[in-house]
Write a structure and sequence with these properties.
The protein is of the alpha/beta class. The chain has five helices and 13 strands. The protein folds into two domains: about 130 residues, P-loop containing nucleotide triphosphate hydrolases (Rossmann fold, 3-Layer(aba) Sandwich); about 45 residues, Wheat Germ Agglutinin (Isolectin 2), domain 1 (2-Layer Sandwich), CATH 3.30.60.20. The chain is globular and about 50 Å long. Bound molecules: zinc ion.
Length: about 200
Amino acid sequence: MIRVPPHRGGWLEVVCGPMFSGKSEEMIRRMRRAEIAGQRVVIFKPRIDDRFDAEDVVSHAGVRMRAVPVGSVAELSARASGHEVVGIDEVQFFEATVVGAALALADLGARVIAAGLDLDFRRLPFGPMPDLLSHAEFVDKLQAVCHRCGGPATTTQRLVDGRPAPYAGDTIVVGASEHYEARCRDCHEAGIDAVTIAA
Ligand SMILES: [Zn+2]
C-alpha cells in the first residue's frame, strides 16, 4: 500500500497499540523527521503522566523528545497555534473534546500525530480513541511481543500482585512494567470478576 499525504492542508494520523509496542518512539521518529526539515513542531501530553520527566515524552526504549504537559484540551489548543506539526502523546487520557481539537488543528492546516492505547486493560476501546481512529487519514496499529508466548501482542494485561486485575478496577493507573504486560489475544486473561459484570 502506498501512503500519500495531502499536498496541501492538514491531516490526522494515529499511532496506536498496546503498551510496549513503541508508539511514543514512532511518534518521536516522525516528529524528528519534520523537525529536521525545518518545520515548527510541538508535542503535548496530559499532565497526569509524569512517570519519568515532566518535560519529556519518554518511550520505554529511552528515546526522548521535549513535550509540553497540558492540563486540558483547551490549553492544548491554545498552545498548538503556530505549529505545523502537533504531536499528542498518551492521547487516550484526554477528554472527548480532544477529537474536535485535533480535527480543528488539521482543518487549519496542521499535521496532527496522535499516539495512544487503542484498548484499555479490559480490551475495551479507550476514551477518545475510537473517534480519533475513525477521523484519521492514516492509522498505524503497532504490535508488541507477548510477554507470555512471544507472539504478536495487541492487548495490555494489567496485573495486580501477579494476577489479572479485576474488571471493575480503575482504568487509569499510570505505571511501570511490573503492573502491565503486552499479551496476545490468546494469552490475555480477564479478571475474576469479568464474567459477573458482563452477565
Ligand atoms: Zn501470547
